[in-house]
Specification:
Blueprint lengths: L10 E6 L12 E6 L14 E5 L4 E5 L5 E9 L7 H6 L7 E7 L5 E4 L10 E9 L10 E6 L8 E10 L3 E8 L3 E8 L21 H9 L5 E7 L5 E6 L7 E9 L9 E5 L25
Antiparallel strand pairs: 1-2, 3-4, 4-7, 5-6, 5-8, 8-9, 10-11, 11-14, 12-13, 12-15, 15-16
């Protein structure tokens, strides 16, 4: 007998018994079976994705649409992409990570992809390939590009210096070693330290995120702002609203495009902006007398 209407990769039980002409029946015989899955393996929607990336290592998360084998290989960006045959045989010269895993239909799997330590802020490509255990069906080789994290703090190659003074303003120039945003805050020399110390403490740790975030947000400052810096250019801080004849303290910190702050909040004194009194010129010379000689 032929059974129809079954689904691919479906699990079934088949029950059967025998009955003779007298109506006597045999014990029920039960067998289980699974129909073959001849579909091509693939990744479920939204997969694969890099679920963890640091400056030295990376993890990927996958979910296949059928139970199969997963081959993976990691290369620096720009290297020649491997073929299916390369993945299967392991002929992958220059790889930074390689392996074969058994993966299960509709089940997430997460694993580390590098066997060697990765470089900071470097580009890589992870190649993934799904195939049946018998090799009957397989996916295309899927590339996943990623960049490792930048964890190195930016630093000022030229600290801010005054380039222009006005009665109520001052301009400063600076340079940073990479693209960054420089945040600044201005205060008058206070009896309370700035940035403010954390609750329960009396001293300020200028290397702490607590101090840096105060400067970034302008918290407790008289004035604050930020300046975008691009490598190859000179950055400028334009500070306005200052009072003449008043000294100020300028606090500043840099944050790069990856979110790293410079090591410490730094500060400098902005000297008082002096008003120039009008000069009054007076003459003390005695006019020369003119007399006419009699004739």
């Amino acid at each position: 007998a032929q059974v129809t209407g079954l689904t691919v990769a479906g699990s079934y039980y088949l029950s059967a018994l025998l009955r003779d002409e007298q109506g006597r029946t045999s014990p029920v015989k039960v067998v289980s079976f699974t129909t073959p899955d001849n579909s091509v393996p693939a990744f479920a929607q939204g997969y694969p994705y890099m679920s963890m990336i640091t400056d030295t290592e990376a993890q990927v998360t996958v979910m296949p649409t059928k139970t199969c084998k997963l081959y993976y290989a990691l290369f620096p960006a720009g290297a020649t992409a491997p073929t299916k045959e390369n993945m299967k045989t392991g002929a992958l010269s220059g790889n930074l990570g390689y392996g074969v895993l058994d993966v299960t239909k509709n089940i997430e799997s997460t694993f580390q992809v590098n066997d060697r330590t990765l470089g900071e802020l470097k580009d890589y490509v992870l190649y993934l390939w799904l195939t049946d255990a018998n090799g009957a069906n397989s996916s295309a080789v899927v590339p996943v590009e990623f960049t490792t994290d930048d964890v190195t703090p930016p630093f000022f190659t030229t600290l801010p210096y005054v380039t222009k003074e006005g009665t109520n303003s001052v301009n400063l120039s600076y340079e940073v070693n990479e693209n960054a945003t420089v945040y600044w805050a201005v205060v008058t020399p206070p009896s309370t330290p700035y940035p403010r110390p954390e609750a329960g403490t009396t001293t300020v740790d200028l290397t702490s995120d607590y101090a840096k975030i105060q400067v970034k947000s302008g918290m407790h400052a008289l004035a604050s702002g930020n300046s975008k810096f691009t490598v190859g250019q000179t950055g400028t801080l334009n500070i306005t609203g200052l009072e003449p004849e008043t000294a100020y303290e300028l606090y500043f910190v840099a944050q790069d495009e990856q979110g790293n702050f410079s090591v410490s909040v730094q500060d400098m004194t902005i000297p008082p902006m002096r008003t120039r009194p009008r000069c009054m010129w007076t003459s003390t010379a005695t006019p020369r007398s003119r007399t006419r000689r009699a004739t």
